[in-house]
Every structure is written in structure tokens, then in C-alpha cells.
Amino acid sequence: xxxxxxxxxxxxxxxxxxxxxxxxxxxxxxxxxxxxxxxxxxxxxxxxxxxxxxxxxxxxxxxxxxxxxxxxxxxxxxxxxxxxxxxxxxxxxxxxxxxxxxxxxxxxxxxxxxxxxxxxxxxxxxxxxxxxxxxxxxxxxxxxxxxxxxxxxxxxxxxxxxxxxxxxxxxxxxxxxxxxxxxxxxxxxxxxxxxxxxxxxxxxxxxxxxxxxxxxxxxxxxxxxxxxxxxxxxxxxxxxxxxxxxxxxxxxxxxxxxxxxxxxxxxxxxxxxxxxxxxxxxxxxxxxxxxxxxxxxxxxxxxxxxxxxxxxxxxxxxxxxxxxxxxxxxxxxxxxxxxxxxxxxxxxxxxxxxxxxxxxxxxxxxxxxxxxxx
Length: 374
Ligand SMILES: [Zn+2]
Fold this sequence. Notes:
- The structure is a single chain.
- The chain is of the alpha+beta class and 374 residues long.
- The protein has 2 domains: 238 residues, 3-Layer(aba) Sandwich (Aminopeptidase); 118 residues, CATH 2.40.50.100.
- Strands 3, 4, 5, 6, 7, 8, 9, 10, 11, 12, 14, 17 and 19 form a 13-stranded mixed β-sheet that branches. The chain has a 4-stranded antiparallel β-sheet with strand order 16-15-13-18, with no helix packed on it.
- Helix 1 packs across helix 6 and helix 7 packs across helix 8.
- The two termini are 30 Å apart.
- The relative contact order is 0.12.
- The C terminus is likely disordered.
- It comes from Halobaculum marinum.
């Protein structure tokens, strides 16, 4: 890493941001049909003091907006006079998708997050990726990329990270995110390409598309604050770490459980997103309730991703299940009881509820609400 030099440095993208300056820029990454620039909103907070460079980004998938709120708050919150090093905040990476409120780049449905590091003469997505990568990502020492589930599903708060990479491992620890799913990521993913090139990036997954979910946004902001504190970038930072963290290895079994029948879905798991082998996850029924198809867990598992749209066709994903051990189960339970799982926000159906546990969860949520929690 090129961090911790003696003197503060200007941040160069193709212009320069001086030490002590916070600058909001609209940076051109492409053109519209009308020949007007497509610009991504970027805030560069360049600290008065020397230190490492942190890259933060959101909405590389245009409908994943929890992270957009994290970016807005980070850009507003941190003062360059206090900052050691630089924070580069890329508020919205996929601006055409963001405008269309959709995941991919419109018209040809290209996924920018499969085209890194990009090429000058490639597809539209690849050209955008190249500008983003060259101008901002590659100039930073490490980064966090904020995602949510795709629309009509939700995902619990967790990190995705290449835990084989030492820099990534350290960064995951610094974030204080309780759960991590280990894996290098698909080829062309920003985090994978950047990590391989020496800028470790961790994906932060949280919640649903097209929503602001306040608890998750707070957790995301705390992860940023924790990274600033761990790297001595912000003296006033107040880190908060969970008592428990867990890495789910890629060798652990994980599977999307899919519907085999069209119909209406009623979730039966809950209140915590953990199921035992053979336990009913949900029931898919026809409109007359003549046919009811019970979907059970093929192994003891943690529901990392959950369908949020109750209408399904055969083949539609219902839940993303990751296998867990008995130890994992206890740890996950402790974590969510502490975090207050219900506050994850837009939980449409909680399914079966144990009144005692529910009362405890609500109490945990209330405590968070009154004592300021994090
Ligand atoms: Zn995403």
C-alpha cells in the first residue's frame, strides 16, 4: 500500500483535489443518445493529514439504493480538516440503471460489475468500468462496495470477500461486519479485479433493492467508521465491534431453493433466518388452496437471501440457503438477537413466530432505539 506517507498528497483523478479539500464532482463516464455526458456523482474528501485512501461505492447495480444513502451520509459527515488520508465516495456507479431504476445498464442489460477492469473499445459497460477503475478505484488503497439483493428478494447484512487475500481479510476484520461469505467473486467483478491488482475491496450486502432500510444504513455507516478508526484515518471515529464474527467458507454448501410449482408463497421460517434440515421453509399454494406444496430445508441452513415477492413460477428462487454447523447456528442467533433482526426493516412476512423469542428480539430492538445502540 502507498499509505502513511509523511506529507499529505493531492488526490489526482485527472484533476487534483488538494489536501484539506472536499470536492463534489460529476465525472463523465459515457454519453447519452443526445451526445450529452453521462456523469457519476463523486465526492472526494482529501484529508489535511497524510494517510491511506479509502474507496467507497454504491449502485453499481442501479436499483440497489441502501448504499446510496450510506454514500450521501459519508460525503456529508467527514471533515477534511480531521481526516488522515482520503475518502473517495462514488455515490452511484451505474447512473443509467439508477435513472431507469433497474439493476443493469438499460437496453442491452449489461452488468457493469462483470466488465472490470474495462476496456477502451469494448461494450458500453466495459468502457464505463474502465473510466471508473482507472480514475478512482486503482488510485485507492482499499475499498467497500455496497450492494443489496436484486429486486423482489432481500439479503441479510453480510460481507462477501476473498478471504484468501490477506488485505481483504484484514479489511473484513476492520469493518466489524458479523457475517462474511468467503469467495473471490465472478470474473470481471470490481472487487475481484481490484483485489487482484492490490486494492482489496469487500462487498457489503444489505437488504432489498429500491428501499432505504435505516438499520442497515446505520450498520453500513458503522462499517465505514470502523475502517476509518482501524486505519487511524479519523481521530473522532467511534468504532463498534460485534462480539462475534463468522466466515462462511465457499466449501460450505449453499443453494438457491427454487419453486417447482407456480402459485402463492407463504413463508413459514422465523423469526430468525435459520432452519433445520427437514424444517418447512415455505408453502407454495394455488389460489383455491387445493394444492399446497411444502418446501423443506435440505440441510441445516442460514437464509442469506429470501424471496420478497409472494408470486412465483416454477424455477423462481425462494431462498438462498447456506449450510451451517451447530456452532454457526448459535453464533448467528446471538448476532441477530443483538443486532435486532426485526429492525432489518422491510420484512414482509415473518412466518411462524415463537412469542418468547419475538419478545426478546423486540426488547433488543427497543434497547438499540433508546440507548443509541451503535
Ligand atoms: Zn448488486
